[in-house]
Amino acid sequence: MAPHIGNHNDTPLLLRPPLSTSENKEFVCGWGAATVNILVTFPINKIIFRQMLHNLNTLAAVEQVASEGIFRLYRGVVPPLCQKSVSVSIMFGMYDKCRRPLLDRNINPFLSKVIAANVAGTIECILVPFERVQTLLQHERYHKEVLSMKHAVNLLWHRHGFAEFYRGLVPVLCRNGPSNALFFIFRDKANELFPEPTKFPSRVVNQFAIGAMIGALCSTIFYPCNVLKVHMQSRIGGPFQSVISSIIEIYLERGSIKAFFRGVHLNYTRSCISWGVINVAYEGLKKIL
Length: 289
Description:
Helix content is about 70%, strand content about 0%. By secondary structure, the chain is an all-alpha fold. Helix 1 (about 20-55) runs antiparallel to helix 11 (about 265-289) and helix 3 (about 80-105) packs antiparallel against helix 4 (about 110-125). The longest helix has about 35 residues, at about 20-55. The radius of gyration is 20 Å and the shape is globular. It starts with 18 loop residues before the first helix and ends with a helix. One of its GO terms (cellular component) is mitochondrial inner membrane.
C-alpha cells in the first residue's frame, strides 16, 4: 500500500529506480484501491454521517436512510469517489516524494516520515470542496434544494463564492496530516513485526489485518474532527464558524462529550473494512502493474 521503506541510503542514487516511475505506479494503485473501497463502504458512511449530524443511534440512522429508498442510497457517492481516490493517491505519492529527499539529506527517518506525512495531508486539503458537496448531498434537509453534484457546485459558486467550498477546512487540516503520520509510522512498525507471508491467502489476511487495525485506530482518534467538519459544513452561507465556537455549540446542543463520538462504533467498523480493502487492493495492484 505504502511505498516500501527500507535501507534507502544503501543504494547509490543513480542506481535507484526513477522517481517518476514509482510515483505513477503508486498513484494508479492508490486510485484503484480507493475506488473499490468507496463503492463497498459508501452505505455505511452515509449512516455514520446521519449519526454525526443528528446525534442518532445506529438503528435510527439505518431506518432514516432506508426510508429514503434504494435509489437515494448512493446519492452523493460521486464527490467521495472523486475525493477519496485522488486523496489516497496523493497520500502515498506525495509522502514518498517528500520523504525521499529528506532521507537523502540524512534527516532522521522518523522525523522524515512525520514531515512527509503532514505535507501530504496538507496537500490533500485541496480536495475539501468534494467533502463540502458530499455533506450537502447526504443531508436530508437539502434533498429538494440540492439535486445533484453539479447543482451543488453551481449553488455554492454563484450564491456564495469560492470560500464557501472550503467551509470546515480547519478540522480537515487537523485531521489529515497527523492521521497520515500515525498511519505510516504504525504501518512500518507492523510490517517489521509481522513479515509478509509467502502463501497468497496468508498474505491477503496479513495485509487486510494490518490495514484494518491501523485504519480503525487512526479514524477513531481523529473522529471528533469529522464531527466538527460535518457540523460546520451542514449550513450554506452565513458567517464561518471557528473550531472553538463549533465545539461549544455541539456541546451545548447535545450536552455531552460523548456526542463528539456518536457513530464511532460504526465508523471503526467501516474503517476496518475500508483500510483493509485499500491495503489488499493496493498491494495487489502494485504486483500486477
